[in-house]
Amino acid sequence: MRKTLREIAQVIEGDVKGDADVVITGISGIKEAASGDITFLANPKYSPLLATTSASAVIVSKEMEIPPAKNFIRVANPSLAFAKVISLMNPDEAGHFKGIHSSALLGKGVKLGKNAAIGAYVVIEDDAEIGDNSVIYPGCFIGRMTKIGSDTLIHPNVSIRERVAVGSRVIIHSGTVIGSDGFGFVEVDGRQHKIPQVGTVEIADDVEIGANVTIDRARFNKTIIGRGTKIDNLVQIAHNVVIGENCLIVAQVGISGSTVIGNNVILAGQAGLVGHITVGDNAIVTAQSGVSKSIPAGAMFSGYPARPFLENQKSHAYVHNLPKMFDLVKELKKRIEELETKLKSKE
Amino acid sequence: MRKTLREIAQVIEGDVKGDADVVITGISGIKEAASGDITFLANPKYSPLLATTSASAVIVSKEMEIPPAKNFIRVANPSLAFAKVISLMNPDEAGHFKGIHSSALLGKGVKLGKNAAIGAYVVIEDDAEIGDNSVIYPGCFIGRMTKIGSDTLIHPNVSIRERVAVGSRVIIHSGTVIGSDGFGFVEVDGRQHKIPQVGTVEIADDVEIGANVTIDRARFNKTIIGRGTKIDNLVQIAHNVVIGENCLIVAQVGISGSTVIGNNVILAGQAGLVGHITVGDNAIVTAQSGVSKSIPAGAMFSGYPARPFLENQKSHAYVHNLPKMFDLVKELKKRIEELETKLKSKE
Amino acid sequence: MRKTLREIAQVIEGDVKGDADVVITGISGIKEAASGDITFLANPKYSPLLATTSASAVIVSKEMEIPPAKNFIRVANPSLAFAKVISLMNPDEAGHFKGIHSSALLGKGVKLGKNAAIGAYVVIEDDAEIGDNSVIYPGCFIGRMTKIGSDTLIHPNVSIRERVAVGSRVIIHSGTVIGSDGFGFVEVDGRQHKIPQVGTVEIADDVEIGANVTIDRARFNKTIIGRGTKIDNLVQIAHNVVIGENCLIVAQVGISGSTVIGNNVILAGQAGLVGHITVGDNAIVTAQSGVSKSIPAGAMFSGYPARPFLENQKSHAYVHNLPKMFDLVKELKKRIEELETKLKSKE
Predict the structure, then answer these.
(1) What predicted TM-score, i.e. pTM, was given to this entire model?
(2) Using an 8 Å Cβ cutoff, are C138 and C120 in contact?
(3) Domain range spanning residue B125?
């Protein structure tokens, strides 16, 4: 794919500064970029890279200070503009297969929407529904009565059990399991008895779920993933968890049963949350934190057990200063002994 | 499904207090319950919810104090009784498919028990055995010579490699991998050489294994999961690990090679255990703990590196009090300086 | 399989000490070994086990002190020799299936090398290439234009997306996902927009990847796993990560986007690394560490946030001594008060 800088600027509604006729043949990060590449810079902190990049053009904000000898496109939001350019330069990427493969097995009463594409060796059980334009890649399993919306994309070897609801424009990556039984047992006479997990999972529109994620069905009622929430790889979401809208749940996070997460929450990588707590809207949990109590809206929590970020930082600083502190106490002890000796000599 | 409270009480051998003719149409948690629902309360701590729940009936223990105006069933064990009610109200849940799908591929010498059900696109390699009434969902792979007991349920897209033994009444959730090679290498001249992993995995009766779990085969001998042990999603069990009976291994726990876990052990979420240690019977490891040494029977360990729970708690409390402590030391220093000045002035 | 000790010694080029005619029928660890087994001992620390093992023979180094009444083979590298013996005693283990199963679906332009073996229900999309002698087990998905080298082994139910490059002599265990989209979003007006992930993944020769691992494709350019690197189960490798050669990445490690790992690096279990940092050659990160800054070559880092190992250890020791320290400060306070009283009385 070859485009002039002028053509790209038109698509992203930006203003060219420099040579609008330069031909762009590739896309890259600002550090790795070579001649022919277009790149972008959103964070002013990295503006020195503008002078050193080998890119043929850089997308920048309207305010960014730019060196004279390079080609730029000025836009309101460089990240978003760059995302559009990536799509523009890779028109094939959306080219999924079409049609129903002859080896796809559709149960009784399965309803397929217009242009739904079902890959090889997919099994869709009785009374399931797949919406318009949705694509289900080979090797997926869709359980009985499960409903999938329109324009949803399910990558290979995903397992979705019975009675799950998946919205529209959802993306689910390979190996992910949705609707597995929650981890619920009751101990009677020293043995664990399974509590049937008869609820389900509801995934709202515009959600994206990474690879090898596990989302358990509710014991009863629903495990819920809210609209526009994005879940990274290898995340564990236990039964009856409720996650709000537009959250970012980073890789390897674990959320225990019945915990409720608000909107716009960020849970950073490998964080763990106990069950039956709430995390307020816009809260942030930093990486590897262990959250044992509810977190108020807007707070940033950190550490184990998780505490307000600054408090946790301060605590780390105190621990860091312990060697000096121990030395000081030792010195004070000595000075006290000297004082005691002197006083005694005066008696 | 509609049942009167009287019918339910008969099944769970409980005594109705209130209106035995009330019709129950659903099940729910005590907080979410609506009219028509039955729920339960096991923990006296939450007894105030009895007065506020909208449920049409609540299953409680014989000792629980109950408000006058509601319907109850008194039983010995409310949790267990409720589990029975869930099954009673959802008779379809056990309705797995029957028969051998025409696309299931059975190798030479494969033995299938009476009523074994094998789903579409399942591959069972030579000389494997599947017991009576066991159900293997679509997309599973069962390796050569692997033996699976009776009444075992294997969900879609599970991979079980060769020569593995799985007991009876075992449940394995989707995406789980059993019998993958242990992580064993020997470094020679700066390169890692694979040590063949020629052992196997043995999973005893009544075990449940969550989704996307990995259980490696032993280097030699066996990796063992004991009877009745329950394993949550995304757990890693390395080669030659031996886990006892009735353990609860919560999501995202990792157990390193050759570690031996006793009976009735609880490993809470995201805990990690180094290799070649032992964890005694009835021990508990709290969430996210990093266990670097063996743990005696009955102990509760916590933190990183994991220590006895109370010791770890105390340590956290000391750290928490460091700011006060630092202030105190500063103050003491000042008082010592004053003493020194005074004493000097007296010389 | 039965071999005399003499036969085994010939294969591993070792010297028999004791009865060269003893018949070996099994292999085992030194503690579990029974009569008929051969075992090995590499670490002199465990040499007392030589006197107590029930093994019929032990492979030891040329320098190891050995008790008189047992059978040994002395070799230069006991671990490597033992690995060879394991293969020798298990000649069937390499016995993978042959040929292209009739249910394997090969897209247009797929190229298969000599003796490539493709299992049942494998889907290989257009223009993919599989090298000589490579084996792809049932249920795998190989995306469009993906290239797999020769002598590579892919276990059941692996998903490899489009345009990925996998080298030769690579082993990939079941359930693993390679080439899933990186976790990249840009927030505009309070909603997360997907940034297309149009890069790919490149896996060099002699890499081994465990079960249920996730390796995301790059946003652009490549996510790279270097030659000879070994990755354990349930590891997360984010977009644009670059891992060098001969690294060991232990189970449940998570590496965030664009982080660069050198050669011969060891990341122990459950460690987490933030994005955009570098880890120098030969560095070691201990289990569960949280790495938030770059690590120099050769360093060993530990804790959260990860610091040089000894510094972290010292910090733990200081925290451990806090109770004594608090007592001491309390005592000093008392002594100061006594001094103050005495001085006052003298005024």
Answers:
(1) 0.91
(2) yes
(3) 105-309
The verdict on C210 and C191 lying in the same domain is yes
Q: Are residues A255 and A203 in the same domain?
A: yes
pLDDT tens for residues C147-196? 999 999 999 999 999 999 999 999 999 999 999 999 988 777 778 888 88
pLDDT of B69 higher than 60: yes
Q: Are B243 and B118 contained in the same domain?
A: yes
Q: Which amino acid is at C32?
A: E
* Residue B22's CATH number: 3.40.1390.10
Q: Which residues of chain A neighbour B316 with C-beta distances below 8 Å?
A: 305
The domain total for chain C is 3
Q: Say which of A180, A190, A339 has its CB closest to residue B246.
A: A190
Do the domain assignments include residue B321? no
Nearest CA in chain B to C27: B220
Residue C93 reports pLDDT greater than 60 = no
DSSP state of A100: B
Say if residue C137 is in the same domain as residue C254. yes
| Distance of residue B139 Cα from the nearest chain C Cα, in angstroms | 7
Residue C184's nearest CA partner among C143, C238, C243 is C238
Does B155 reside within a domain?
A: yes
Inter-chain touch C80–B193, beta carbons under 8 Å: yes
Q: Looking at this protein, which amino acid is placed at residue B225?
A: I
Tokens of B47: 């007894």
pLDDT bin (cut points 50, 70, 90) of residue B93 is: low
- Nearest 5°: the CA angle A4, A10, A13 is 135
Between CA A139 and CA B174 the distance in angstroms is 13
Query: Do A202 and A328 share a domain, yes or no?
Result: no
Query: Which of chain A's residues have a Cβ under 8 Å away from the Cβ of B212?
Result: 175, 177, 212-214, 234
ipTM > 0.85 (yes/no): yes
The CA–CA distances, whole Å, from C101 to A303, B196, C97, C135, C138 equal 52, 27, 10, 12, 9
Is B316 inside a domain boundary? Answer: no
DSSP string, C30-81: TTT--TTEEEE---GGGTTHHHH---SEEEEESS----TTS-EEEES-HHHH
A155: annotated active-site residue:
no
Cis peptide, bond prior to residue A305, ω within 30 of zero: yes
Q: What is the DSSP string of B258-289?
A: T-EE-SS-EE-TT-EE-SS-EE-TT-EE-TT-
Residues of B annotated as part of the active site: 239
Kindly determine whether residue B272 and residue C264, on different chains, have CB atoms separated by under 8 Å.
no
Intervals of chain A under pLDDT 50: none
Q: Is residue B100 assigned to a domain?
A: no
Closest CA to B129 of B152, B149, B115: B149
pLDDT in tens, C6-54: 999 999 999 999 999 999 988 877 887 889 989 999 888 888 999 999 9
DSSP state of A102: T
Determine contact, residues C140/C122, Cβ cutoff 8 Å. Answer: yes
How far is residue B182's CA from residue B4's CA, in Å, rounded to a whole number?
A: 54
